[in-house]
Amino acid sequence: MAIRAPSRPLLPDLDFESMAAEELISWAHGFFWPRLCVTCSWQKQSSVLVHMVAELGLRMDTVELDTHLFFRESYETRDALAERYQLKLIQPQIPTVAEQHRREGPNLWERDQDRCCHIRKVEPLVRALEPYDAWISGIRRDQSPSRAGTPKIQWSERYRVFKIHPLADWDEKRVWSYIEVNEIPYNPLHDAGYRSIGCIPCTRPTRPDEEERAGRWAGSDKLECGLHVEASPLRGG
Predict the structure, then answer these.
(1) In which band, very low, low, confident or very high, does the pLDDT at 219 lie, cut at 50, 70 and 90?
(2) Are the CB atoms for 156 and 59 separated by under 8 Å?
(3) Contact in structure between 136 and 25 (CB atoms under 8 Å)
(4) Which residues are catalytic?
(5) Per-residue model confidence (pLDDT) at position 64
(6) Rg (CA), the chain
(7) Which one of 3, 47, 73, 103 is least enclosed by Cβ atoms within 10 Å?
(8) Would you say residue 10 lies in a domain?
(9) What domain range includes position 40?
(10) Three-class SS of residue 181?
(11) Domain CATH for 79
(12) CA distance 120 to 117
């Protein structure tokens, strides 16, 4: 018996939800390799995933979700992780900030955050994922209400790939425990109150009483950059 849906590949009928993170990554590598990648934006989940892949003895492309508007600490974290784990970085081409200013007007992130995210994140990722059949992401259900229903594997109509979320059922405490036990490099901004880290203009530290992603697009009703929308969950596994 297998799961089948129009215009998407066939998957074995497995209980993906019961799989541990390492087990799911190993299965994905065996099933999709070499058309499999992991995406990183150099937050704490990125540190966990690249370490986990290395500990499993697996090699896969690492797609960097760099908007050219990251904090210096995020780039330093990238360099530390890339050196330690010998990452094969795939860096999608995006317009420079100056090009965006000329086309869209200055400081688009102040006027139309959705448009800015689409140009600097979504469109580059659509192109970057074209060679792949599956994409490993570090999103977790406890990060925000918009992610509470995230399954461990789902089909994305937007990207035409399977999205795999090995850490979907982890909480923030478990992420930190894994990083500390394994002594993994992580973004130092987390120690300065930035529980979720994105672009400089749209990220602030969070208060102890706020949700993890409350510092992203603060003061607006925006919850997601757009990378993780328009995907339908796979049921039956």
Answers:
(1) low
(2) no
(3) yes
(4) 225
(5) 95
(6) 17
(7) 103
(8) no
(9) 18-229
(10) helix
(11) 3.40.50.620
(12) 5
